[in-house]
Amino acid sequence: MPTPILIDCDPGHDDAIALLLALASPEVELLGVTTTHGNQTLEKTTANAIRVLEFVGREDVPVAAGADRPLVRDLFVAEYVHGESGLEGPELPPPTARAVNVHAVDFLAERALAAGTPVTLVPTGPLTNVALLLARHPQAAQRLGRIVLMGGSIAEGNVTPAAEFNIWADPEAAARVFSSGLDITMIGLDVTHKAILTDVQAESLRSSGRTGAMVAELLAFFSRFHRRTYGFEGSPIHDAVAVAHVLRPGLVETVDRHVAVDCESTLCRGRTVVDLWRRTGNEANAHVGVDIDSSAFLELLVERIRSFDA
Ligand code: BDR
Ligand code: CA
Prior knowledge:
Layout: E1 3-9, H1 13-23, E2 28-35, H2 42-55, E3 63-65, H3 79-82, H4 104-114, E4 119-123, H5 128-136, H6 138-142, E5 144-150, H7 165-169, H8 171-178, E6 184-187, H9 189-192, E7 196-198, H10 199-204, H11 210-230, E8 234-236, H12 238-247, E9 252-257, E10 259-261, E11 272-274, E12 286-292, H13 294-307
Parallel strand pairs: 1-2, 1-4, 2-3, 4-5, 5-6, 6-12
Antiparallel strand pairs: 7-8, 9-12, 10-11
Helix pairs in contact: 1-12, 4-5, 5-8
């Protein structure tokens, strides 16, 4: 039986690839996609989720739009990484369908309650929708089997020296999620920066067919930022690592630790303070990714993207 999953995302180049990975994988059944502000405005991330699904003929997967801003902070979009549309690079037609007429938070609750087996929620954007789900539908949230989220970091930041973008964008939401008592796996930068899809690997997708070519176009744009900023010869596909960890348990090595989110300071806003050496005595509230079998991840990702054109 495939694991039922819901992806809450802000596409976004790596979110788009995470969606494709889920769609191409028999290990999971994608029950729906919800969208949030993040890499671009909610309007654009919602359109982008639909554009990706329509590109591969999966308009049967419903998309529900959610929060258009963080709980308390001002909206900030990562246009400097993902471009004006949020999905710059390929020539993707505008969406023909619209999001369903239900707010993402209610949609998540409905799907979690209706599923016969516990649903895995994979958030790959700021955690606003997930925090709202906890507040508005606590019983439905308790029905989630687990949350495997892309966000945070033990040791580094990408939007500031101290913080990763998804957590920084809505730290108050992230703090609520980490203290919810749900089963949380944190796939952070410590892991995703170890699994770089090289420009050569990305270009090799181009010849596999129209989906491979579209992904190669996405990555050609995405990797410019990573080359400029980090000197990487390729891109981390952050959000796809979270999906891959659901497909292949153990792909990411995790340790159980307490994670707190800094909502107080200016300098360290959104930092995930991971008690790696157990200095506080606080009980672990997350499985924190510390290492990854990067070749297994990259092989899986490339194989699944190629399968669209087989
Ligand atoms: C995360 O931030 C976004 O820009 C990416 O889509 C990913 O979810 C990486 O920090
Ligand atoms: Ca994302």
